[in-house]
Amino acid sequence: MAFWLYTMSEPIKNIKNSGEDPLKEFQLAQLTTKQKESPDFGNKISKKIWGYITTGIGGYFYNRNAQFIKNRNYANGIMDVQAMFQDRFQFNAKQNYIRLDWQTLQIVNRIISGLVGRWMQRGEKVEIQASDDRSQKSKQEQYDQLEFIIQNKKQLEKLQEATGVEFIPKGTDLPVDNDELMLWKAQFQRLPEEIETEMGCNDVLSSNGMYDVVKEKLLHDSAEVGFVGTYTWMDEQGVIHTRWVKPEDSIYGWTEYPDFRDASWLGEAPSMKISELRRDFGKEFHPNDPLALDEQQLFKIAQTAKEWQYNTNLVWTNVWNSTFMRPYDEWNVRSLRFELRTVDSEPYTITTSKNTGTTYTQKGYPTTASGKKRDKPNDNQKVIDDSNINIYEAVYLPDNDVLLRWRLKKNMIRPQDPKEIGNAEFSYSFYMYQNYMMRNLAIPQKIMAAVNGMILALLKMQQVVARMRPTGAVIDESALQNIDYGLGEAGNKTVDYKRLFDQTGDVYYRGVDAEGNRVPIPIQELANSGFLGQMQGLISNYQFNYQTLKDELGEDPNLISAALQPRVTAGNVQASQSMAEYATDYMYRAYAENMKMTAKKVSCLLKDSIVYGSKAYRSIVKTNYETWQIFNANIKFLPTEQEVLRFEAMMNEAIAASPDLLMFINPFMLMQMAKEDVKLAWMMFDNGRKKMLVHQIEMTQQNQKATFDAQIASAKASEEGKQQTEQVKGGIDLEAKKVEGETANKNAVVAMVTSLLSKGEQVPASLQPLVNVVMENIMIPLATQNEQQKAAIIQQYQQSQQPMNEEQDEQMPENEMMEQEQPQQQMQQDNSQPQVAA
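^ thats the sequence. predicted structure below, dont judge the formating
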C-alpha cells in the first residue's frame, strides 16, 4: 500500500488547441443542438477556455488573483511586513544591531470589519411583483371597485339596508378616502401568487444562508476584492440551491457591464475532492452516463492531486477496496466548470402536399427518400429556423484531459416573459463594481499606499526608540578633588557623588582652588533631546498618511470615537455618517445587485418547480401558477436600526404634543411596520395625523356652530321677549286709554245728571237709557265691592264665633234657629238689590 501511494505517475499535460478556434466554430457554424452536444466539441472548448485562464505570468487571471491575494493579506493582517520593509532599514543576512517588531498596524482589517459589521445590520428580502397584463388588469379592477365603494358609500349603505344584499365587503379594513386608497394601491395591493412567490424565494435564499453566513462572505468579497458571485440551480427533485462562488476561482469572458450581462461564458475553476468526483460523476452513482468515471479512472485522476487530507489524520485503513472511503478520497484535483451561452437554430421543413394541399412540419432539413440531405428544398417545401438562446454546461479536469460533462444544461433558467422565452440566463451571478477594463479598486488596494506609509512610520518610531540614549552627565575627574563635605578626608571618600547627584540633583564642591582660581562644576547633566524632533516628525508623517487614508477611503474609521466627544453635535455626526455611506456603500450595493440577480433566477426556477409538478415547495405555494403570469423579483432593503429609532422618537414626540393622535394610530403596529418598511410606517403615521387634523377641524366647526346656534337662539329668545313685553305694554296702554275714555264718558254723564238734578230738572227721556246704563255700570261694581267686603267681614266674624255657636246649637231648638236665620236672609236680599238714585 505504501508503495502504491508514493509511485504516482507524471501528471497528464494539457495540449492547447491550435490552428482553429472551436469557440468561433461553435458560435457561427450552422449546427444542430445534437451536433453541438458532441463530446468532441466540449473537449475542444474546454481546452480553449483553460488556455485563456492559464496564460501564466502577465495574463489577466494571473494578475487579477495576485492582486486578490495581496488584498486578502492586507484585509486579514497576514502580510509579510519584514519582507516588505527590511531593506529600508539596511537589514540583511549579516549582523544586525537592533531588533524590530515586524507585526504592526492591522488598520485595514479594522476598517473592513467595521464596514462589514455595519452592512450586516441591514436587512433585505425579496419583493415580487406580477407584471403581466392580466395581473395588472385584475389589480385595476380591484382598485376601481374600491374607488366606486368609497365615492358611493352612503348610497350603497342605504341600498344595502333596504334590500338586504351585501354591497360593501365586511371583515376587511377598507380605505375610507382617496388618500388611503392610494396608500393601499402602492403598498398593500398584492395578488396571492405574488405573496406566495415572495415567501418561496425568501425561504430558498434563507435556507441557503444568503441572509447570514453567505451574506457575510459576499460582503467581505465585495470589500476586499471588489467581486461577488453566486451559483443557482435546481436538482431533479425540484429543490432550488444557491451557493457562494470564490472570487479567486471565478472565470469569465469579456464584458463592459458590472453584472456581466453581455458575457458569452461564465464559470469557475475550483478544486474537487475525489469523493465529490465519485458522487457526481462516478459509475457507482451514474451508471447510464457515458462520461461517468470508473474506479480505475478515479485512481488515475488521484495521481494528479495536489494535496491529501484524511478525515481524522490519526488512523489509516488497509481495506479501502471494500468501502466507499478510499485513502485518496480527500485528495483535491483541479477542475474547470463553465457555462457557455450561444444561439441555436433548429431547422424545420414545412411541406405542402401537392395533391391534398395539407401541410406538415418535419424537424431538420429536407431529405431524400433514403434519408440524405437535399442540396435545396423542393418547390413545395420551405425551411425555417427556430432560434433560441441556450446554455451549455461543461465540467473538465485539465490535469487529466478528462471531460466529465458536456451537455445542454438541464433545468435551464428561462425568463418568465413570453416575449423573452427564447432567452436564457447563466446559473452564475457575478458582479464587479466600477468595472473598467475588467479591473476595479477594492478597499485594500485604495488605501495600500497610505497604510504602507503608516507602517513605515511606526517601524521608524521603533528604530528611534531602540536607539534612544538615556540622560547622562559630564563628570570632571579633576574637579571632583575640590568636593568637600566638611567631614574630613575619610568622610569625602564614603560619599558616592554620582548617586547623590542622581537622587538629589545637588553637587557640593569648592568653587576656588588654593590659588584662588575658579574651579569648573565637577558634574553637569547632558542635554539629550535630539530624538524628540525625530519622533515628532515621524508622528506628523503617520498623521499625514492617516489623513491620506481617510481621503482615499472617503470616511473616518474613528468616526464613532469622535462622536463621543461633547463638542461634536448630533447633526454633525449624522452628516458625517451620511457622507461615509455615500463613499463606501457602493460596495454594499454590489452585494444587493448580486442578490437581485440571484432572486430573479430563484423566482424563475420556483415557478418551473411548481408548474411541472414538484412538491418541494407546496407547503409554501398553495396555488397553481398560470403560464401567462410574469413575476419580477427585486431586493427590498429593510430599514436600519437608526431609521427605526428616529421614527420611534419622532412618533413619541408627536403623541406627546397631540395626545388625540392615539385615537387614529396604533403605535405598536407602526413600530412593527417600521421594522419592515419605514416609508410605509411614515405614510400610515401621516395618514393618521391627517385624520386627526380633519377630526379637530370638524370638532372646531361643530363647536363654533353650536356656539353660533346658541347665540342665535339667545338673541331670538331675547327679541321674542322684547316683542312680547312691547305687546303687553301696548295692551296695557290701550286698556288704560280705553278705561280713561270710559271713565271720562261716565264722568261726563254723572256731571250732566248732577248738573240737572242740582237745578231741579229732570233727565230727558231720550237720555234716560244712557243714564241708567252708566249708573248701573258705576253702582253695580261699587255695590259688588261693598258686598264682597261685607261678606269677608261676616266670614271672619263667623269663624271667630263658630265655637260658641256650636255650643249654643246644642241647646237651641230648631225653630229658634230658623227664626234667627230668617232675618239674616232678609238682610242679604236687601243688600243684593241695587240702590239707584231717584
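The longest strand covers residues 336-352.
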